[in-house]
Amino acid sequence: MSSIISLSGIHKYYGDYHALRGIDLEIKQGEFFSLLGPSGCGKTTLLRVIAGFEDVSEGVLLLDGANMARVPANKRPTNMVFQSYAIFPHLTVGQNVAFGLRKKGLSKADMAAAADEALTMVGLAGYGSRAAHALSGGQRQRVALARALVLKPKVLLLDEPLSALDKKMREQMQSELRRLQRQVGITFILVTHDQEEALIMSDRIAVMFEGEIAQMASPQELYRRPATRRVGEFIGVMNFLEAKQTGTTEKAVSFDVEGLGNAEISVDQLPEGARATADVVGLRPEALSILFEGQNPTGRVADATVQDLAYYGDMTYYEVTLEGSSTPVTISMKNLISRPVLERGTKTRVQWDERSLVIFAA
Amino acid sequence: MLLLLAVPLATIFAFSFWTQDFLNIDHTFTLKNYQEAFSDPIYRAIMLRSVTIAGAVTVVTVVLAFPIAYFVSFHVRPERKAFWVFLITIPFWTSYLLRAFLWKVILGFNGVLNSGLLWLGLIDEPLTFILYNSNAVVITLAHAFAPFTILPIYVALEKIDRSLLEASQDLGEGTVRTFFRVTLPLAMPGVIAATLIVFIPTIGDYVTPRLVGGPDGLMIANMIQTQFLKLNNAPMGAALSVLAMTAVTLISLVFLFANRRFLK
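ok -> structure tokens follow
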């Protein structure tokens, strides 16, 4: 598949402030791509650069092979769903959706038909004559989506479109957006600060910090093999344990990990450029599990004490300390009918697996 | 409060149905004043002129005020906006009467404008169409009311969510189309408010036509004053007042309905 968007060496300065620091990015046709990062990391700026609302200070932006330098926003084959939705309050829902169709030279009837079709696609059939200001948040979002999709853009840009919705609505829209994206086959670029949302929806995610892409990978890769400690911290929950390298063979590197003891890590598990003297390893909460009474261990075992717990209904998150370590470690356990929920202060055993240890590149 | 407003109004209303009988007021109910107001061409002409001048002042002010309001709202840096609004209110520092007098000085036969243009060689003899006629009234009133119109339009423009303008661009419209399809319709409540703010007081303005209007620039308020004080015909003056108020009310209602449509 060819790249629909290609960014190389994009820099953006606001006066002295260096907002984007050399972004290189290829996005494939039909991909659901997310820009993920904390606020102020430059993800929205990057989206606005692609839309044409910000000019680049340096670098080249190709959209479907065409250079976008000097192409204003209204001439680009991109459409945007704004964070505030930007629904025109003086127009009806139908007029909002048909707003961009004026340029297509359609007849009034064709325009209305196209708008109706787009509204049906987002589940708002029959809303055409309603006043735009009377809509709920979720409906506004759908109108914004219909208004952009009706123009059949090459790339749809979504600027934190779900952040203003409540949790239930957000979850519903997440799956609906995915469905829509598959249905229309348009490349979607989503900006979000919600790592869970990015994981659920995207084919590929670029994690950004301070104007740079820290890691670009599929959701699974990103979760399992975060390139840096910071990415690991940002995506999901991660435990960090001190580690000391004790030896290297051709096939494996051994570490002495705080509270867990010696661990041999296969070389294909090491990321490229991993420091030979890694002083910390990462471990996801589900990579550790509590051994309940009468359970036989299937992996390595360590002693631990429950310090605290958070009961979520389906899951319990335990905060334990390992024998010989004071670092709190989070363990997530599925709650089964046969399993008790342990109390604070309980001494227990945990089991873990060397294959789930994460070594960071830098 | 109600008393202060209602009693004079009621008195005017009552007077308009009476007649002047040399020195006394004849208290018999009659529509004679209104018949005269509608049939005498001089009243009709002056009433029409008042509406025309007020309309012209409104159009001139709003058309001139809009670009200024637009500039301050869209092109002045946010931290400077308060300063600009302050600058716009500077004309209020001198009294309205003084400003009307000053325009007389500027527009006069040997006034600032004419001497300036003569000195520059742009004209050979002083322009006479700029003072003591309705043009002078329009210029003076437009200047006096400009700040009143800039402010409501500015407020309406400030309220426009800037992402709406980006959305319009994103949907393929350039700057001009975006202005006519998004900015202007959303600024309409401000424009209509500005229109009412200018139109209502100017139609009954007395000072400016008196000072710079000359015989051709007199408006209904001057005629009402003449009736009350010079011709000693209070009932006729009262009838003209009631008619002027009715005209203002009707025209204002039209605008209010228009506003409701835009505010929807």
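The domain at 32-263 of chain B is CATH 1.10.3720.10 (MetI-like fold).
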